[in-house]
Specification:
This protein is mainly alpha-helical. It has one domain. The protein contains twelve helices and four strands; from the N terminus they run ααααβααβββαααααα. It has a four-stranded mixed β-sheet, sandwiched between helices. Helix 7 packs across helix 11 and helix 9 packs antiparallel against helix 10.
């Protein structure tokens, strides 16, 4: 009887909805908030942002994630990334891009985390790692080709590292305010910066390394403690990208920390809920 009553009630609701349709939402801001917990919202958001081809993989490989937004799509391979970027910035097109960048951001990119404590001036406009470089002025990534001293694994890690810089800078330049509560924004990253969230999450991951023998865990903890000490000295954007270097696979397969969830949302900002066909 209860099933029959609930069916009839649903039919009445459907008929009422047809006679009195709710106004169609013009954009995401018009949608009413779901009555779910923050944890459920996280799970829903991450699931529907993640491209279908990797959403069910427990241990994704570089091949699995290629073409999904984990790695930089538009990049140039050059023996010396820094010199190559300098050459680009000094071309006519590069000079025009630099002029436009400084006109848009005369005080540097937004966000307290982009200000150097020592000088009060914005961080350098180019983010550098030994084998790769991303320039928000040129919106270009340059990476060194694989070699005997720069293995394919390091090549892909560098592409992922620079992609993290790229997605962060694109957000700051193009969409600094969130469209929905769970989307990373300048304000969102400022709170992470104030809370020292990246270092806390790095330490959490180090303390939860299951599946290793005791000796291996001790060795890895010692190595990662040294890395944590180094990361504490890095700029916020470099902390963000380096976190991905160490926990890239974990953050794709099962994002647990605030840092990992922010990275996933930046990587997959155009995944299905934003209209991507999967």
């Amino acid at each position: 009887m209860e099933d029959t009553d609930s069916t009839i009630a649903q039919m009445v609701d459907d008929i009422f909805e047809q006679d009195n349709p709710k106004p169609r939402a013009k954009n995401l801001m018009d949608l009413s908030k779901l009555d779910i917990t923050d944890e459920q919202a996280d799970d829903f958001d991450i699931l529907y942002r993640t491209p279908a081809k990797i959403s069910l993989l427990e241990d994704p490989t570089a091949v699995d994630v290629t073409g999904t937004g984990i790695f930089s799509k538009n990049y140039t391979v050059a023996e010396n990334p820094g010199e190559y970027a300098d050459e680009l910035i000094n071309t006519d097109i590069g000079k025009q891009q630099r002029k436009e960048f400084h006109e848009r951001f005369p005080k540097g990119l937004p966000g307290r985390y982009n200000i150097k404590k020592s000088t009060g001036f914005p961080n350098d406009i180019v983010s550098i790692v030994p084998f790769g470089i991303y320039s928000p002025v040129l919106r270009t990534t340059v990476v060194q080709p694989p070699s005997k001293n720069f293995m394919p694994k390091e090549f892909f890690t560098t592409l992922a590292h620079e992609r993290t810089h790229e997605t962060q800078r694109e957000m700051e330049m193009d969409n600094p305010k969130s469209r929905v509560r769970t989307e990373p924004s300048v304000e969102f990253l400022e709170q992470m910066f104030d809370d020292k969230q990246i270092v806390k999450d790095f330490e959490f991951r180090v303390e939860n390394m299951g599946g290793l023998e005791f000796e291996e865990q001790a060795k890895l903890r010692k190595e990662r403690k040294e890395v944590i000490d180094e990361i504490k000295q890095d700029s916020f954007s470099e902390q963000f990208a380096r976190y991905g270097d160490y926990f890239l696979r974990d953050s794709i397969a099962d994002p647990k920390t605030k840092t990992e969830k922010a990275m996933m949302r930046l990587r997959f900002k155009d995944a299905p809920i934003w209209g991507m066909k999967v």
